[in-house]
Each structure stands twice: as structure tokens, then as C-alpha cells.
Amino acid sequence: MSVDPMAYEAQFFGFTPQTCMLRVYIAFQDYLFEMMLVVEGVILKKLDAMPGCQISPSQIRKCTEKFLLFLKDHFDKLFSRMEEVLLQLVLNIPRNVLLPEDKVHEQYPYSKEEFQALQEELQQLQQQCRAEVAAGEALKAELQEQKAVMAELEKILQWFDGLENICREHGTGNFKESFAFLTQNSKKLQDALKEVQEKSKKMEQHEQLL
What we know:
Layout: H1 7-13, H2 17-48, H3 57-90, H4 103-107, H5 112-169, H6 175-209
Helix pairs in contact: 2-3
């Protein structure tokens, strides 16, 4: 059998030519064995019909096996020649022939170095694509945070609107003035609280001395 892988032929036929020849060889060999069994059976029947025959079935089997080996030896030689012819002239694609799916290589030929450069460029593009996807995910997360902040701001605005309505109900029309008034009163209350706390501390210290 030929050791040439014949990969291009395998691409075209869908199987390797060597595999095809091996199957043909096995089929011929099986047919040869079956044929010899039929011949042996016919000989045995003929001998049974002949009275006084001194040839035993075991002798017939030995002769059949010798004849089979003789035929197989000649068959292997003939098949070897047939295989060589078929692999060269029938199952062989000339090196100057391109398959239809490989026409693109003829239109856009690339050297090994150019192909390597294309692979590197492809890897860079894949990395850029991954980076863009990661950036997109980060933007989505930031948008979610902005939505949450906007929701909190909406709540604050609603609270201010409610406070302004309360001020109007109690006769205070200017919310800014009311808010400033509340801030001043709150500061006065804080100052008064500090003063009370300081006096309380002084009284505690005076009681401890007594």
C-alpha cells in the first residue's frame, strides 16, 4: 500500500484513496476464499459419486489450501500493479489542479509570514473586543448607579416639595426664608444646648467639691 497520505485527494473524495484500495483488496480476497470453498464442495460431490475413489476429504482440503495460496500470491502481485495504476491515474489529483473551495487561495495567496501576521492581528482584535465588552459592562454598572442616585434625588425633591406645602399651610409663603429661619433657630438651639451642658458640668464639679 502507498504511504503517501494524499490529503488533497481525501479532501475531494471524502475518503483516502488508500482506504478505498484496501476495501477493494479485502472484497476480492473474501470473494476468492468463498469461490475456493464452492470449488471444494463441488469436488467432494464429484468424488462421492465416483465408486472406489481413494481420495479423502482431508486430502482435498490440503490441495484446496495449496491452490488458494497459489492464487493469493498471484492475486497480490496483480493487485499491487492495479493499485499503482489506480492511485496514479484514477484516484490522483494533479498538483496543478485546484479544488473549487481552494480557489480563494489562488486569488489571495499568503506566505507563512503574512499568515502569522494575520493571526497576530486577529488576536489583537479579539483582545480589543474583550476590552470593549468589559468597558460596556462597566458603563452599564455606572448607569445603574446613576439611576439609583436619580431615584434618591427624586425622593429629596419630593421631601422639599412636601416641606414647602407645609410652610404654605402655616402661613409662610417664602420657603427660602422659612428654611433660613429654621436654620437660624436650629443654630440657636444648638448653642443653648451647649450652654446648658457646660453649666451642668460646672454644677456637677461644684457638687463633687462639696
